[in-house]
Amino acid sequence: MKQLIESMEKTLFGQSQNIKLLIAALLAGGHVLLEGVPGLGKTKMARTLAELIQGQYRRIQFTPDMMPSDITGNVVFNMKENDFQMVKGPIFCHLLLADEINRTGPKTQAALLEAMEERQTTIHGETYRLADPFFVVATQNPVEYEGTYPLPEAQLDRFMFKLLLDYPSADSEKMILQRHIPFSNEQVKAIESVCTLEQIREKRKELAQVVVEDSIVEYITAIIRKTRELPQIQLGASPRAGIAVMMASKAWALLDGRSYVTPDDVKLISRPALRHRIILSPQAELEGATRDQIIQEALASIPVPR
Fold it and tell me: Is 254 strand, coil or helix?
């Protein structure tokens, strides 16, 4: 896992924490929503991860005229065989990039709900199991809202993390430019895989051995319940959010080489795991409060277990 993180960091500069969170979500069996302006490497991040783990990668460019069958597949009549035939859609892969997911309508967005939660999809009454692992990385642009359809809460709650990609630092941006100078030592090289899908499955099994003490469970419960009590929050986090925080904390501990979860793991995971699951009150929004700030306030108000 350390080699996987390092390989991604060599390709994507200035995104170390987001890379580690992305891999943590993969190990924990979650999905990730990437939000950032164009050109920050959202698509490259997903494609690089798929290549490094030898996973089957598919990319769907979401558009307003897309239908659910364009994602899941459909049953078509084969005139040569004189029979109906199942044509699988791009959802049958290991890593699915849902590019600009908010550019398609709710009906098409809903085609992903069953797949993301139950790892299966239903086509004309027949249920088909999806690949193991099945990992969805969705992207959206936070600036351009014309012609978009905001993701409903039910859809957002299926994502383990919402990761915010920001502009790289000056040093990171310089390294990005150097990699694109022709004939230089920093020229882009072909990506070689560093682990297999079987190794990812084995790592997932190791999550069961990561210890979460009762004090940590109570800490996570207190955080989730606090989001429902703060006056700045109109809609708090669901029980599914608590499960996401706990599983992601276990994955983060595993990536750090530990067999136990600490309160610091929970604190770090809470922002990306909760920022898309809460709705601020109109008053809080008028005052310019952000979701990350409110989550930080909630964390600060809860005693940390020793």
Answer: helix
